[in-house]
Specification:
This protein is an alpha+beta fold. The chain is built from four helices and 17 strands.
Length: 275
């Protein structure tokens, strides 16, 4: 896997999350599909009933957000792009809230550490231990290939599994027996969010680019919820992004802990070349 693919895999979470922000009010009809694939026409109205129902659901989601100071995890990652399925790898993740993200990528087929990534709100450093190179980027580097605004808060919330919403911007609301489906339109994407009606847990976020010429879509699935230390955490994530080519990422958190003391070892060997 190329070094940029390592960064891209991490920030795919961000791409999906940003579609939930900066939404704007819209008055029109929109045809949507729920996660079962059945289409239904929803008339968007600025009625108090729509807004009240949507805000109630989003309030429940907000109340269930994970409040943490540190997070660490081991995750199995499967990655497939236009070049086919790439070798699986394990990602060891350490996160200090609002401060630093540390990721060690171990190539399972080689049994060695291949990459080490260190991200702060301002910068990105990537060690490629296979090629013995180091890359330095501003955090805005993510925006250069994602083409949408990014920030560190979004990154940590999506890694943790916290939803990012603005409840007063909801433009559609539909409730079925098993699901609650909320539609928004933002600066870049049409966003369709599916929530379990039984558990109020986030199940799916579906995004479609507003720019029809880009034809960019993204789907993020959450599953395998577990309760650990009173916190609900989705141990399974699936990300599918399609534009000119398709990228599929599957992430399974094998081990995870919250609010334990962490270290962030990151030294750059003298013989590494700056790329």
């Amino acid at each position: 896997m190329e070094s940029h693919s390592v960064i891209f895999t991490v920030v795919l979470f961000l791409i999906v999350a940003t579609g939930c922000r900066s939404t704007k009010s819209l008055r029109s009809n929109i045809s949507i599909k729920d996660s079962s694939g059945h289409a239904s026409s929803v008339i968007l109205r600025d009625s108090s009933s729509y807004k009240s129902a949507a805000k109630e659901v989003l309030s429940v989601l907000s109340d269930d957000e994970i409040n943490f100071q540190t997070f660490s995890a081991k995750a199995k990652v499967q990655y497939e792009d236009q070049n086919g399925k790439q070798p699986d790898f394990n990602a060891f993740i350490r996160l200090q809230k609002d401060s630093a993200l540390w990721v060690s990528v171990n190539a399972t087929f080689l049994g060695i550490e291949a990459f080490r990534l260190y991200v702060t709100p301002d910068s990105i450093i990537l060690l490629n231990k296979l090629d013995k190179t180091v890359e330095y980027h501003p955090f805005s580097f993510i925006e250069s290939f994602a083409h949408i605004p990014m920030n560190f808060t979004l990154l940590q919330n999506i890694l943790i599994g916290n939803p990012v919403y603005e409840g007063d911007s909801v433009v559609s609301f539909r409730r079925t027996e098993n699901q609650i489906i909320i539609g928004t339109i933002g600066s870049f994407f049409k966003n369709l969010t599916t929530i379990s009606a039984d558990t109020n847990k986030l199940q799916q976020i579906k995004l479609d680019d507003l720019d029809v010429f880009r034809n960019r879509t993204a789907t993020l699935l959450y599953g395998g919820y577990e309760k650990n230390s009173g916190l609900n955490f989705a141990t399974e994530r699936q990300i599918n992004v399609s534009e000119k080519s398709k990228v599929d990422v599957s992430i399974e958190f094998k081990q995870y802990e919250f609010n334990k003391e962490l270290s962030f070892p990151f030294s750059i060997p003298h013989n590494y070349k700056t790329k």
